[in-house]
Design goal:
mainly alpha; three-stranded parallel β-sheet; two-stranded parallel sheet; 15 helices; 6% strand; disordered N terminus
Length: 377
């Protein structure tokens, strides 16, 4: 009996020691450890919030991108609450699936033109092409060496994209891109990242890797927190069970920011609805009509209840015309600015070049500290 009690006591002691080791990541090579909550801060009294996000240049941004992210970035930029606002045109992420080189070059310019047309300011926001800053891939490799495969396998977007890819051989880039995404964030010591629900798991990975690096090699990275706003989730016009997407093979499922009024009317007229003629907001029972109401609400600022009250006299076809008018009015100035900017590629390239230089001023020193801490230099 005494032996059993003594064994139980030793077992509890061992478990406590193991727990302490896990929390503090004790390692003789890296000196004494500090508690994780201390390592998550870097000069907290001096550091100002930093914002980081990005967009893939896989085609013209659509109205879902605008209301779901771009409009929010502009609002945050205009608050002047951030020491740095960094927006990446993530061309390296876009090549996780094959891209036509000429199309990609044009898509990059269109992405920059669209962001500028939507109100992002190249002076107040660091707007750059991801592949111009080599430190992204350098830090991505470092973080990849700290990441376990089973953690990546459980990310929901990996499962979704792997299932969607008809090829029997799924590209490695699809599997590892959340690690590069973490590098994008940590390289600029971002404190806040605007995200939707579908990206929360990826930001959790970035937070995990920041803590792991800090605990292993010493404090460097702030722990980025999600910035979740009142994002408007616009669904596909053809399949309201899915979000609007640039990768959707059916182009009528999305409204691109540069679509003409005729194209917008045609897409909304052919949008999925139902056989009920009156206009009611029932996302579960009537997802197609509810999606049109959400789109109308995003363009006008009206609530779904206000829209339904104003549409009592309309059938579905008549209501689609009202939605089309609202979308055209909202996008017309953006479309005209995109057209004007695309006719001035030298301005777009100068914006990219300037943003690259400013991005390197932050990314370069950060990555040098990473290499020092690793022992590479």
């Amino acid at each position: 009996m005494q032996i059993l009690c003594r064994f139980a006591t030793m077992r509890r002691t061992f478990m406590q020691i193991s727990k302490i080791n896990r929390c503090f990541c004790i390692n003789r090579n890296f000196g004494s450890a500090a508690p994780p909550n201390e390592l998550s801060k870097e000069n907290p009294s001096n550091i100002r919030p930093r914002l980081m996000s990005g967009i893939q240049p896989t085609g013209l941004p659509h109205i879902g991108n605008y209301f779901g992210a771009i409009q929010h970035w502009k609002t945050l930029q205009d608050t002047n609450n951030y020491d740095v606002v960094v927006i990446s045109v993530a061309d390296l992420h876009s090549i996780t699936l094959p891209q036509n080189p000429e199309n990609l070059r044009r898509n990059i310019l269109e992405s920059v033109a669209s962001l500028l047309a939507c109100g992002l300011d190249g002076e107040r926001t660091i707007l750059f092409r991801q592949s111009d800053v080599s430190q992204h891939t350098g830090l991505g490799w470092v973080l990849g060496c700290l990441t376990h495969m089973n953690r990546l396998e459980h990310l929901p977007q990996w499962k979704e994209k792997a299932a969607r890819n008809s090829s029997t051989e799924v590209p490695l880039g699809l599997f590892t891109y959340p690690v590069l995404q973490a590098a994008d964030i940590l390289l600029y010591k971002a404190t806040e990242v605007p995200v939707g629900d579908d990206q929360l798991k990826h930001l959790e990975l970035a937070r995990h890797l920041a803590k792991l690096f800090n605990n292993t090699y010493g404090p460097l990275f702030p722990i980025p927190r999600p910035l979740i706003g009142e994002f408007k989730r616009i669904k596909s016009l053809r399949n309201p069970a899915s979000k609007m997407s640039k990768s959707d093979k059916d182009s009528k499922g999305r409204i691109e920011l540069a679509d003409s009024p005729d194209e917008i009317r045609d897409k909304i007229r052919k949008a999925f609805s139902d056989c009920t003629s009156n206009i009611t907001y029932e996302p579960t029972a009537r997802p197609g009509v509810a999606n049109l109401i959400e789109l109308h609400s995003a363009c006008t600022g009206l609530t779904p209840d206000e829209i339904c009250e104003q549409s009592l006299h309309l059938d579905t076809l008549g209501y689609k015309n009202i939605v089309a008018d609202a979308v055209i009015e909202r996008l017309s100035p953006i479309r005209e600015k995109i057209k004007r900017l695309m006719n001035d590629p030298s301005h777009l390239n100068n914006t990219i070049k300037s943003g690259c230089q400013r991005a390197k001023e932050i990314a370069g020193p950060t990555y040098e500290v990473v290499r020092q801490k690793l022992g590479c230099i």
